[in-house]
Each structure stands twice: as C-alpha cells, then as structure tokens.
C-alpha cells in the first residue's frame, strides 16, 4: 500500500506534510525560531551517502566533518556570527568597509558555487537503492556481487543527453541510465542508455554528433532538441546514425517516467568465470512496471506545466513507497574469434541482437528506495566511468567503448576540479582503498606512510599486489594483432537493416508516432537539401515510412539507393501489448464539495490499497468539507493540475465554475448546491478530461461525474461509468495494466 505523497507542484496542501509527531516534523511557526533547534533529520524517503573515509574504509567518524551540523551560525572557519544580514558599514548609510571579512567570505563562496555542467547528460536526477543478485550469472562470471543473494548498495543517475542542466525533462531525447554498484570488490559502473544502440560506431566521432545535436553555435538555439538543421544535416550524411535516430523518433524518446524505461549497456561486454572461461554479454534493465511513454503532445504540455516532471515523478513514487524496480538481465553469446552472433557483429554498437534470437536472462533486481539528501553532493558530483570494472567483468574491442574508457575520467578533471573526485563521498568505493595516488587539488585524505611507491621496504612492502585468486582484476589475455590503420570492418557498413527491423517490429500506432516525429523534426529544419537527404535515408529504411513523412513535408518521396532487407519483426521491440503492474500509477480524482465525497474517501483508500497514488483535484486547495467530520484533503487544484500528470482520471462530481469561491463556505455551499447540468461544468475540468481522453488514458465517473465525461466528448473504449467509486476503480485498474487505451488511437499508417 502506498502512502500519500507531498503536494508537488500543486497549490493544495497535503496531509503528508503536516503529520503531528512524525519524525522530523516541527510545530508550524510563522516566525523564525530564536533558539537553536538543530537541523531537520532526513525524511524517511531520503538517504545520505554512506559514511566512508576518503580512502574508502567504512568510517562513521568520516560522516562528514564539514557537514552543516552545528546549531549556531558561523563563518567557514567556525567563528560564531551574530548578524549575516547587514554588511559592515561606516554608519547605517555606508559606504561598506573593505575589512568586512564575513561579507567577503560569503560572497566569495557564492561566486564560486557553480561547477561546469556535464558536457552531455547535464540534466539528470538520481536515487539510492539496492541491487539483489539472483546468482544466475554465477556460472558465467566470478563477479562477487553477482553471486546468489548478494545485496549491493547502488546509486542510479537518470538523465537526458542534449539539454543544459536547467532544461526540461520531457524533451525528445535519449535517456541516460547510469548505475554505480558499490561492491565489496570495488565500484562497478554500468553507464547505460534507454536505447540499445548508439549514433556512431567509433568514439572519435562523438564530438561531431554532439556538436551537431547541441544548440547551434551562432545563436545557441534550440535548447534540448534535435529538431534543427545541424542535427539532421549530420545524421542524413552520416547514415550509421539512422538506427539510433529511428529509436529517437519513436515513443522510447519520450518516456512516461524514468520508472518505465528500459536500460541497455549497448556494448558487448566480456564476462569471466572462476576458471577464466569467457562469455560475451549485453546488459539489459527491464522495468517491472513495463515500458511506457508519453505522447508527443503530452510531452510538449509537460515541459511547460512541470519542467521537472521526471524528477518529481521519481521522488514522489519513492516517497509514496512505490519503489521503482528493474530486473537486470543478460543476453549471452559464445566468445568466438569473429565475435558475431547469427551474422550480427557484436562489436558494432549500432546493432542489437533481437531478444527472440538471444533471450534476456534475468540475473538480479534493482530497487530504488531513497531520494538524495543533497542534490549537488550526490546527483551532481557522482562520476561514472565504463572503466570502473570488477573482477569477472571486462571490456571488448568495440571502438566506441574503447574511446569511452578515455573520455569519462578525463571529463571529471574539468567538471569536478581535479584528479581526486573518487574521494567525494558519493564516489567513494565501499571496498578498502590503498592506491598510492597522492596529493592533487582537493585532496581529502591524510595519507599515512612514507613510501607511496612500489617496490618499497620503507613501508614494509605495503600495499601488496595480489593474484586473481585473491581478488585481483586480471585482463583477459585476448590475442591482439593487425597493422595500424584508420578504418572499420566491412560489417560496419550496413546502416539500414536494423533500422528497418525496428520499423517492421512496431505496431500501427507506434509507426504512426514515428512518422509524426520525423515530420515534426524535419518540419523544423530550414534547409530543403537536408530534408531531402533524410528522406533518402528513410527510403532506404522503408518506402511507406518515407512516403508518409514526405507527404507531411510536402516533398516527393525518393527512390531507395539500397535494397531493403527482409527482416523478421522482433516483437520485443514494441511497447504495445502485454499487461503490467499498476503500482505507483497516478490517479486523478476530480471532485468539489458537492460531489460524492463518501465515494471519494473510499476511492482514495482503494487506490492506496492497490498500490497506486490518488491525487484529489478540486476547485481550491485545502480541504473539501461535506460536513461529515471527515474532510477530504486536496492535492491539486483546477489551476495547478494538468491532465498530463495523471495516468487515469476519475470524476466524482460535476464542479461548476465558482471564481474566487471561499473554501470555508464549502460545507454549507456543498450541502445546498443542486445537481448541475453538463453545460455548467467548469471548463478547466472539461479540458482536463478531454485531454486525458485524447491521450488515450483510462477515464471513469460515477454519479454526477458522468455529465462531465459527456461534456468533454469522452465516450467509447476505456471510458467507464460505474455505479460506485469502487466498481469504477476496478475497471480502471484493469485498463491501466495496458498503460493506454490503444484502441482509441486513429491510425493511418
Ligand atoms: Fe557517454 C556521460 C551513456 C557514449 C562521453 N554517457 C554519460 C552518461 C551516460 C552515458 C548515461 C551520464 C553519466 C552520469 O549520469 O553522470 N555514453 C553513454 C552510452 C554511450 C556513450 C550508453 C554509448 C554506448 N559517451 C559516449 C562516448 C563518449 C562519451 C562515445 C566519448 C567519446 N559520456 C561522455 C562524457 C560524459 C558522458 C563526456 C559526460 C559527463 C560524464 O561523462 O561524466 O565523458
């Protein structure tokens, strides 16, 4: 059963905010307290990073000597202060004196609060959790954290790729899904995306693709979007990007939530078992809630209504107790000399292996159960690197992966200000560290000993190197040969067959969304030659796709220049079909004081009990009071709610417009109001319901609420009119299992 969540962006209050006597709660006060009270402890859904010393040893005394724990205001040197509101002046009207050391320190620190944002994946959010291994991978890897029943603390950071740190969440983009496993053998980072293939086959082209997709240099627009000339210029010339691009034009690029995204390690990795035997693998994260996306119109609305949509969704779900979960799985392939599987080059990161050919085998479960206690310290300062490996997991010669092994360490030098970023609390391994690395900017450790070199006798030979038997990482002795050359294998020249496989695997409604996405993005380009070149690439993927996009652009559809391959569709690539748990789904309940509040109370309980999150949407914040002695708490108002926030909407009454109505008068007004006609329904409610209907969400009503559905034109599949709140919810929950009412989409492809 989930708990009430904090009101989020709503104007309304929420009972979760004001539970008297709850841990960390204080009596509400209108003025600043004048006696020290100590800082508020973290909320139940938040977790600080684990206390580890700068050299990686678990050390409660290292909990963070620099944390803001004292009750009294001080300078950075610990000097107590009596006033931080007035500069030291010559008389009350100044001027300000240069000797004001407190002013200078305070402003100096503020002036340097910002660090460079990540060059890509700048916009993100994260959460703490645990990975529990099933042990099923133990036969192919000696990695300790993949042993049976082993639990490993993790931190996950989700991100968009293109936008700046302050950009909106629901843009059309690839999403990052980076996981740091704090294993007892050192940190392992799985730095993944929500798309299983990449734009380029060789890391040397990463600056090119990113320069093309980032805002255009002259005017620095557009922000966080691929819908502009330079992006389409690059990908239409550089056709190895076309497979990734068709994923980016699909619903995958506008996830409903980070909770409903798949994750992919993209590259082929090499697992090593206890006897040194090797297996090639691809990593997959499968969301327990299923893969679910926004519609493009929803995404556009969300970015205005709530730019923090995905961040808020993640934190609200965790706070409500609906802890997001993903199963980690691997596709396994024999480690043959040619490193191909069923004709697919496993070293080509623009290719996937269909799950129908190599099933994803589950190896463990990730659960995110705690929000960060400090965003900067944890989400901003975390530093991932595909070269953070543990014994039993090694890299392959994928040229994209090889370049990443250089880039991630390098970027932290500028972003985190020097080589000691592994000592930042969120980056510290939970394994003991004795690395002989010394000094440098922001050194936190007070290293003991006098011999940070090997071999030595001065420190008694410490630290000691060990062999594989004692847990050392040993590279797989793969033979390497070849002349130095700048080239790619012939197999890398196939740029269209898997883009076509993806297209052919889509359901009609998904195809329609892809056509619209291409037409939208190319429609934003100014250069006709770029649109024409991209249409040629589409012709090489599929003639119907090309024709439909060409029609939308008002351009002729070109003939293909390559013969399309006839691939068997891979049903696993489609998001449509199947049913999923409804945990953590958001149910909007429209009500006013004249509605059936007894039904609303029952409904809220039933929604909670089903593991979903009920949010009551009312004409005003505060409470809806029908005089029963059990007022209903309001979480969203007609002013603050938009349909995009809800997975389903239930209507408990037919609220009439009452501009500036005083909340206190509800009880009497509610009791006195007669039933309303459909014509009088508040237009904000009609809009909310009509939008939810257009976006193919489940809708329900009982009692007077039916009139609202009628007025909004909501009728047909997925629209439930029940005799009671409970009965309506039951049908809505069944519909939600399929994520959307797919039959409601008009499909023309
Ligand atoms: Fe990358 C960040 C994922 C190719 C260079 N990348 C970054 C993040 C993710 C990925 C999830 C954000 C990590 C975080 O949350 O801090 N990147 C990928 C995937 C790729 C990929 C799945 C291909 C399969 N990346 C890639 C290449 C290069 C980089 C080819 C450079 C040659 N990526 C970086 C970076 C970033 C980064 C510049 C920016 C911030 C950071 O590393 O720490 O080094």
Explain the layout of strands and helices.
Layout: E1 46-47, H1 101-111, E2 124-133, E3 151-160, E4 175-183, E5 186-193, H2 206-213, H3 229-237, H4 242-248, E6 263-264, E7 269-272, E8 278-287, H5 296-305, H6 309-320, E9 325-334, E10 340-341, E11 344-345, E12 361-372, H7 375-380, E13 393-394, H8 399-415, H9 497-504, H10 508-523, H11 528-541, H12 543-553, E14 586-590, H13 597-609, E15 613-618, E16 623-624, E17 632-633, E18 636-637, E19 648-651, H14 666-672, H15 683-694, E20 698-702, H16 705-711, E21 719-722, H17 725-736
Parallel strand pairs: 1-12, 14-15, 14-19, 15-18, 19-20, 20-21
Antiparallel strand pairs: 2-3, 2-12, 3-4, 4-5, 6-8, 7-8, 7-13, 8-9, 9-12, 10-11, 16-17
Helix pairs in contact: 2-3, 3-11, 4-9, 10-12, 11-12
This protein binds CIS-heme D hydroxychlorin gamma-spirolactone.
CIS-heme D hydroxychlorin gamma-spirolactone is lined by residues 118-121, 124, 157, 159, 176, 178, 191-193, 198, 203, 206, 266-267, 349, 382-384, 400, 403-404, 407-408, 411.
GO molecular function: catalase activity; heme binding; metal ion binding
Active site: 121, 193
Biased composition (Low complexity): 1-16
């Amino acid at each position: 059963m989930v708990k009430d969540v904090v009101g989020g962006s709503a104007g309304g209050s929420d009972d979760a905010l004001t539970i008297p006597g709850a841990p960390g709660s204080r009596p509400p006060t209108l003025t600043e307290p004048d006696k020290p009270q100590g800082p508020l402890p973290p909320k139940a859904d938040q977790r600080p990073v684990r206390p580890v010393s700068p050299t990686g040893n678990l050390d409660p005394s290292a909990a963070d000597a620099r944390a803001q724990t004292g009750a009294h205001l001080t300078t950075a040197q610990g000097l107590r202060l009596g006033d931080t509101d007035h500069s030291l002046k010559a008389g009350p009207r100044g001027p300000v004196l240069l000797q004001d050391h407190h002013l200078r320190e305070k402003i100096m620190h503020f002036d340097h609060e910002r660090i460079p944002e990540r060059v890509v994946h700048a916009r993100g959010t994260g959460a703490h959790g645990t990975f529990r291994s099933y042990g099923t991978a133990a036969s192919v890897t000696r990695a300790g954290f993949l042993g049976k029943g082993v639990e490993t603390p993790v931190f996950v950071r989700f991100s968009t790729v293109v936008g700046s740190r302050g950009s909106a969440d629901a843009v059309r983009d690839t999403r990052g899904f980076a996981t740091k496993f704090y294993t007892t053998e050192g940190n392992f980072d799985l730095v993944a995306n929500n798309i299983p293939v990449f734009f380029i086959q060789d890391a040397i082209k990463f600056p090119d693709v990113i320069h093309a997709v980032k805002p255009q240099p002259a005017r620095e627009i557009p922000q966080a979007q691929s819908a502009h000339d330079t992006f389409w210029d690059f990908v239409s010339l550089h056709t190895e990007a076309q497979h990734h691009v068709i994923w980016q034009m699909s619903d995958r690029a506008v996830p409903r939530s980070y909770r409903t995204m798949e994750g992919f390690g993209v590259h082929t990795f090499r697992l090593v078992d206890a006897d040194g035997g090797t297996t090639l693998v691809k990593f997959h994260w499968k969301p327990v809630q299923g893969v679910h996306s926004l519609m493009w119109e929803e995404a556009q609305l969300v970015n205005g209504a709530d730019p923090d949509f995905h961040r808020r969704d993640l934190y609200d779900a965790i706070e409500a107790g609906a802890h997001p979960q993903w199963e980690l799985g691997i596709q396994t392939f024999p480690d043959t000399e040619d490193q191909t599987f069923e004709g697919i080059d496993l070293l080509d990161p623009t290719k996937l292996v269909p799950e129908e050919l190599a099933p994803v085998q589950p190896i463990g479960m990730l659960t995110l159960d705690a929000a960060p206690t400090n965003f900067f310290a944890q989400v901003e300062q975390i530093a991932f690197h595909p070269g953070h490996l543990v014994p039993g997991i090694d890299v392959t010669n994928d040229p994209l992966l090889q370049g990443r092994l250089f880039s991630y360490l390098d970027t932290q030098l500028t972003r985190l200000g020097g080589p000691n970023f592994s000592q930042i609390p969120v980056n510290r391994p939970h394994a003991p560290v004795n690395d002989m690395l010394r000094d440098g900017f922001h050194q936190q450790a007070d290293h003991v000993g006098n011999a940070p070199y090997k071999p030595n006798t001065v420190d008694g030979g410490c630290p000691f190197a060990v062999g594989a038997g004692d847990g050392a990482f040993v590279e797989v002795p793969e033979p390497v040969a070849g002349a130095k050359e700048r080239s790619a294998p012939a197999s890398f020249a196939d740029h269209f067959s898997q883009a076509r496989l993806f297209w052919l695997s889509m359901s009609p409604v998904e195809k329609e969304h892809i056509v619209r996405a291409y037409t939208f993005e190319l429609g934003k380009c100014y250069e006709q030659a770029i649109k024409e070149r991209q249409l040629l690439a589409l012709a090489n993927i599929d003639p119907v796709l090309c024709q439909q996009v060409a029609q939308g652009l008002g351009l002729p559809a070109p003939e293909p220049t390559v013969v399309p391959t006839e691939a068997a569709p891979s049903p696993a690539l489609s998001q449509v079909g199947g049913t999923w748990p409804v945990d953590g789904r958001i149910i909007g309940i429209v009500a006013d004081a004249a509605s059936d509040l007894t039904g609303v109370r029952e409904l809220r309980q039933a929604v909670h009990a089903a593991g979903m999150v009920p949010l009551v949407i009312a004409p005003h914040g505060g409470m809806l009071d029908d005089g029963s002695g059990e007022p209903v708490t309001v979480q969203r108002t007609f002013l603050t709610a938009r349909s995009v926030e809800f997975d389903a909407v239930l209507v408990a009454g037919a609220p009439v417009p009452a501009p500036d109505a005083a909340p206190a008068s509800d009880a009497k007004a509610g009791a006195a109001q007669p039933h309303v006609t459909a014509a009088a329904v508040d237009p904000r409610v009609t809009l909310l319901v009509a939008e939810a209907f257009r976006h193919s969400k489940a809708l329900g009503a009982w009692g007077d609420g039916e009139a609202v559905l009628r007025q909004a034109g909501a009728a047909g599949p997925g629209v439930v009119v029940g005799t009671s709140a409970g009965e309506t919810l039951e049908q809505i929950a069944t519909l939600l299992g399929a994520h959307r009412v797919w039959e409601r989409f008009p499909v023309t492809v």
